[in-house]
Amino acid sequence: MKTIFSVVLLMGLGCTMTSCSAVATADAVVFPETISLHGKEKAIKDSVYLKYPFRLRLNDDVLAVIDIHSAVYYIHTFDYKTMRHKQSLARRGEAPAEFLSAENIRIDRHGDVWALDANKSKIVKLAKQIDEQPVQIDLDKELVRALDFDRLNDSVFIVPDYTGQHRISFVSSGGDILRHAFQIPSSTKKVSAMVLAQAWRSFISYNSHHGILGMATQLGQVLEIYDIKRERVIKVIGQEHGAPHFVNRGGYAVPSGIMGYSDIHVGEEHIYALFWGSSFDDIRKRPEHHKEGGRFVHVFDLKGNPVRQYLLDRCITGFHIDEERGALIGLDVNSNQPIVEYTFNLD
Amino acid sequence: MKKYLTVLICCVAIGIGLNVHIQYVHDHPKKISIALTNIEALAQGETGNGNCRFFGSVDCPYSGDKVLYVE
């Protein structure tokens, strides 16, 4: 009788242990430490309404912010010291010099602001003066909706898109594809490349000093690290447990998992990625209670080892990282004063 | 002793049943999600850009708009 008793007890324990380990391994990454940060609001002095600020870059004292749902201008610049409005750029409209969308901005070493208009399939160097003409680069027609961009050097851009045949393309300053590199790190083989590319929609950041490119999935928790100079994969973090969940509905990827990463910055020694973690089920059920943005900043070293995560006191949609100063400037889309500065100490 | 054994077997059976259920929900979130989606779609009606709702930062696969979620 005792033997039967013990066997039954062991079976029960065994089943419970299996279930716990399945739940425990659901986390894609475990960080050695979590540090809470409290932000300081940087109030905009002038009446500039930002409906959905999503990207920002700081160069010297000029802060450029993209509002992806703007009614008139997509980009606004501010003096970061005084928080006075300087300029509004990238007017919304269908005229040749106007924009139909703004995905991201980059500021080059000359201080010029570059923006990607995915709907017009253009990368534009914005004019600094009113009498100046913007430089417009029509992207190669082989690219299906450029999703993000960064500068490899003065004459080449890195662009991911929806074709799904390759992870990224290198595009010349004339807009032509020079070559492609890498593949979407998915084990799913049953769906078309374009559906896979929609599900694996990622944001990119490239650091030309060491040649590391980071890619972070918006609809999952995967972070890819590539060495562009040697054209090799360094690491894919969260490939198994963080892969985007989606439903293929008539040739379109409908996200069904989580809102994952929404911004990434490859610094000199670390990679920073802004993580949301909100499930689409929760968002669908109660959209009015949902706060846009993420409170987690995941920090990895350049080999992809988790270093720490920062827990912010508010949800942000995009960030600028200043490693030298130990500062993170975030965009709180849920606030009327969306620009928030955090300070951190990277040992 | 028989009584204790029966109670123990019942507890273990309930435990196994719960485990199987949790595992199913964990592995098949899509089925539940689709069911909810259908109910909500009936309640809200369709929007102009396919089934893309509100504004946000998710790319609507049907229109390219930035939306809160896609159904």
UniProtKB/TrEMBL annotation, chain A:
Residues 1-24 form the signal peptide. Keywords: Signal. The keyword Signal applies. The keyword Signal applies. SUPFAM superfamilies: NHL repeat. This is Uncharacterized protein.
UniProtKB/TrEMBL annotation, chain B:
It holds the Pfam family NVEALA. It comes from the Bacteria. InterPro entries: NVEALA (IPR025905). This is NVEALA family protein. It comes from Sphingobacterium haloxyli. The lineage of its organism: Bacteria, Pseudomonadati, Bacteroidota, Sphingobacteriia, Sphingobacteriales.
